[in-house]
Amino acid sequence: MKPLDDTVHPLPAQRAFLVQVHAEAEVAQGRLAGRVEHVVSGQATHFASPEELLAFMARVVRSKNPNTPFPQRLRLRYRSSSS
């Protein structure tokens, strides 16, 4: 079986991120803070909101492939464990 290259693989390594959520973050209430690292490049930053997290991810993905389309507005979706 021929392996998929990163251009057609649904989960390419170039889009792998490690996200560490701060112990005091209240994810269910939308208060997200922590640290994110791009697995391939090692670029990392701290974030204080879902928007900052997504902005970092978008910058890294775009810098690796400038032709990658990204929606103007990204949304982080999550479900509360109490739902």
Structural overview:
The chain is an alpha+beta fold and 83 residues long. The chain has a domain at 16-64. The protein contains one helix and three strands, in the order E-E-E-H. The protein has a three-stranded antiparallel β-sheet with strand order 1-2-3, covered by helices on one side. Strand 2 and strand 3 (44-47) form a beta hairpin. The N and C termini lie far apart (42 Å). The model is unreliable at 70-76 and 78-83 (pLDDT under 50).
Describe this protein with a few key phrases.
about 80 residues, alpha+beta, three-stranded antiparallel sheet, 1 helix, 3 strands, about 20% helix, elongated, disordered C terminus
Q: What's the helix and strand layout?
A:
Elements: E1 17-21, E2 34-38, E3 44-47, H1 50-64
Antiparallel strand pairs: 1-2, 2-3
Q: Which structural category do the helix and sheet elements fall into?
A: alpha+beta
Radius of gyration: 15 Å
Principal-axis shape equals elongated
The average pLDDT value, as a whole number, equals 80
